[in-house]
């Protein structure tokens, strides 16, 4: 079972805390989703671009996106630089 991570907002930025209330992903994002539906990565917005970070706070992809949508059971990513939809 994956540990529960919950979004937290501090100083106008978002991050994630674990079940003990410890910050595990620093509050440095303008907007975040949650891990529900996304599993091991979560979409986060830094400046105008969306990135994916792991449960340990590492950036999961070198790509950034202008739109991120969850479409069960697949993910739809819109890649910022090429304007192509990626499906994984």
How would you write the strand order of the largest sheet?
Answer: 1-2-3
Strands, total number: 9
Helix content: under 10%
Structural class by sheet pairing and helices: mainly beta
Structure annotation, total helices: 0
Mean of the pLDDT scores? 77
Separation, N- and C-terminal Cα atoms: 23 Å
List low-pLDDT spans: none
Integer-rounded radius of gyration: 13 Å
Shape: globular
Domains counted in the coordinates: how many? 1
Largest sheet: 3 strands, antiparallel
SSE pattern: EEEEEEEEE
Please indicate the percent range of residues in DSSP E strands (runs of 2 or more).
Answer: over 45%
Can you walk through the features of this model?
With 88 residues, this protein is mainly β. It has one domain. Helices cover 0% and strands 53% of the residues. It is built from no helices and nine strands. The protein is globular. The relative contact order is 0.15.
């Amino acid at each position: 079972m994956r540990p529960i991570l919950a979004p937290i907002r501090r100083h106008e930025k978002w991050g994630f805390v674990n079940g003990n209330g410890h910050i595990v992903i620093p509050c440095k994002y303008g907007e975040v989703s949650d891990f529900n539906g996304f599993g091991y990565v979560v979409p986060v917005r830094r400046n105008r671009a969306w990135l994916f970070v792991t449960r340990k706070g590492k950036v999961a992809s070198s790509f950034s996106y202008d739109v991120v949508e969850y479409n069960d059971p697949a993910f739809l990513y819109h890649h910022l630089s090429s304007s192509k939809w990626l499906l994984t």
